[in-house]
Write a structure and sequence with these properties.
The structure holds 2 protein chains of 2 kinds.
Chain A (H helix, E strand, L loop, with lengths): L9 E6 L4 E5 H4 L3 H9 L8 E4 L4 H19 L6 H12 L3 H14 L2 H15 L4 H8 L7 H10 L11
Parallel strand pairs in A: 1-3
Antiparallel strand pairs in A: 1-2
Helix pairs in contact in A: 3-4, 3-5, 5-6
Chain B lengths: L9 H8 L4 H6 L5 H8 L1 H12 L6 E4 L6 E5 L6 H10 L6 E6 L6 E4 L4 E4 L13 E5 L1
Antiparallel strand pairs in B: 1-2, 2-6, 3-6, 4-5
The chains are: A mainly alpha, B alpha+beta.
Chain lengths: ~170, ~140
């Protein structure tokens, strides 16, 4: 350990599929579940491996990328600035719906408030101009209306079906 | 083979719905019976309003059982008529809007027989929210 205390502490995380991640402490502490693990185990050795049985490697890598960037933004006083918006837009641009769902499930389990908030907003934005059929497919919800029942609901809100994007 | 679709737990689905504009919410009532009942729930409408009002969209939806009209309300206690006009512009799909009444705690339910609709004060169902100031009907 450097006597200047500059040595960065590394947190070890192990995913459901057995991959080990080495994460800088400030980034790992963004995960409420990791933070409370160390709060409750104050004597935990530096090389303690925190198991994350509900998260696999792919979403965790994506989450670390996001949290790392946001920890830096905050440290640089860039929070809320265009730079952050640009990063966020770029971050989700290439993500498929399945990847977004994987990320939000992982962020929910790890309890990362800022990222959860961002992903919730992102998914809402993706769905807002979409058709009913698209939303069913997105959430994996089965249509349990009879055609007559569905027609009745549609009729009631006809105006809400105008200007819907292509799926 | 395609990987099976991931399911999101109900609370995440609900949080996503709460971020949607009113028009999308009404359309998504057709998704399934459970989404119809979830979205028709007044509690969701109130939470939705509280969420969206933070982002300066100060309206939510209540439906009148009797007339199938949609009422749009603001829960912002400090709201002025200036705020109301911006609400009106944002609530598209309605041809007219009228500020019907300012509500207070004692006048939570109002009836207007002439036009045939019932105003229902959602604040009486909202546990910790007594800030309802006015109610606007769009038709």
């Amino acid at each position: 350990m450097s006597k200047l205390g500059q040595a960065k502490r590394i947190i070890f995380l192990k995913t459901a599929d057995g991959q080990l991640f080495e994460v800088d402490e400030p980034v790992a502490m963004e995960f409420e579940i990791v933070k409370s693990f160390f709060d409750e185990n104050e004597d935990a050795a530096d090389d303690t491996v925190v198991p994350l049985p509900n998260v696999s490697a792919e979403p965790l890598a994506g989450i670390i990328e996001f949290c790392k960037a946001h920890v830096e933004f905050r440290a640089n006083g860039a929070a809320g600035k265009d730079e952050v918006k640009k990063f966020n837009a770029e971050y989700i641009k290439e993500k498929s719906n399945e990847q977004l769902k994987e990320l939000i499930l992982a962020a929910n389990y790890l309890n990362i408030k800022e990222m959860l908030d961002f992903l919730t907003e992102t998914i809402a934005n993706r769905l807002k101009n979409k058709s009913v059929e698209y939303v069913r497919a997105f959430f994996g919800i089965e249509n349990d209306f009879t055609p007559q029942e569905e027609e009745a609901v549609r009729k009631e809100y006809e105006w809400a079906f105008e200007g819907v994007d292509e799926d | 083979m395609q990987a099976p679709s991931l399911y999101l737990p109900d609370d995440l689905v609900r949080d996503i719905l709460l971020r949607l504009p009113v028009k999308s919410l009404l359309r998504f009532k057709c998704v399934s019976k459970s989404s119809l009942s979830l979205i028709s729930n007044h509690k969701l409408a109130i939470t939705h309003l509280n969420k969206t009002s933070k982002r300066s969209r100060r309206y939510g939806v209540i439906e009148s059982k009797h007339s199938h009209r949609i009422s749009v309300y603001s829960l912002d206690g400090s709201g002025s008529s200036g705020d109301l006009s911006s609400m009106i512009v944002e609530a598209n799909g309605f041809s007219q809007a009228k500020i019907l009444v300012r509500l207070d705690k004692d006048r939570s339910v109002m009836k207007n027989n002439r036009s045939g609709f019932v105003i229902w004060n959602p604040a009486t169902r909202a546990q910790d929210d007594s800030t309802l100031e006015f109610l606007v009907l769009f038709f």
